[in-house]
Amino acid sequence: MERSTPHQAAPRTGNLDFGLAGLPNGEAMTRAATNLMKESMDFVSDRLRADSRMLEQACNCGNIADLAALQQQWMAEAFRAYSEVTSRMLTQAFAAATPAEAPEATTRPSRAVRAAEPAAAA
């Protein structure tokens, strides 16, 4: 007698083997994921360079006031950089996750939703 397994592997779909193929924007999401990974690695690399420069400058500070000014400048620059990259990455992610035409705009609400609307307004 043949044993059955409770879970069977999903069929492979080519390049999108991790489930994005069935989504409306599957290919766009894959491209966005690749871009986000590249953006993340570029950002980390840039921040490490900036941090390294700051540490070199900190070692050459002559007094605590210069060190405090350097730290303040570094914090402002880091905050700006993190804000910019976060905004850029979120914009890319939302653009990839949003279908070109929202299905809600093309379908009518269900009968139960239409029936509940007047009751909600009252």
Report what the structure shows.
This is Phasin domain-containing protein. The chain is mostly helical. The chain has a domain of 70 residues. Helix content is 68%, strand content 0%. The protein contains 4 helices and no strands. Helix 1 packs antiparallel against helix 2. The chain is elongated and about 60 Å long. The termini are far apart.
Describe the protein's topology.
Layout: H1 26-59, H2 64-97, H3 103-106, H4 111-121
Ends apart, CA distance between termini: 63 Å
What would you call the structural class?
A: mainly alpha
Mean pLDDT: 77
Q: Find the count of extended strands (DSSP E, 2+ residues).
A: 0
Structure summary:
This protein has 122 residues and is an all-alpha fold. The protein has helices at 26-59, 64-97, 103-106, 111-121.
Keywords for this structure?
122 residues; Phasin domain-containing protein; mainly alpha
